[in-house]
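quick one, 148 residues, struct below
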Amino acid sequence: MKFLLKIFLPLSLLLVSPMIVQAEEGVHKLVLQVSDNDPSKMNAALNVAANVSRHYSSLGEEVDIKIVAFNAGLHMLRSDTSPVAKRISNFSNGMPNVVFHACANTMAAMKRKSGGKSVPVFKFAKIVPAGVVSIMELDAKGYTLVRP
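---
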């Protein structure tokens, strides 16, 4: 019995320690991936962000949410092609704990495909070098990745 305790106690602490770190920071962290040009998935990401934000606000707790758009999902943040333009604009004004990341790699690829025509994104979107790298870095900082 003591032998099992010596093995399983340290292992259980390894599993619990990430949760302890998150609780000590006092901020819940969520990253939502949008990589498809699908309005229902874009709306699902916005719904998840709103629901998570509302949940933690009701508990008096903070939450930091990043929505990262890349590949075809970048259309979510394009001011000229976004199928959720009105909703996302209202959303960005009313949800200060939600930040939108637009992938510069995808923007460059879209620009090339359009013969050099610029790819406009909403002013509230933060342009990051690479969407996937942004997600990886957020994951390393303790964010939970969800792909609605």
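The longest strand covers residues 27-34.
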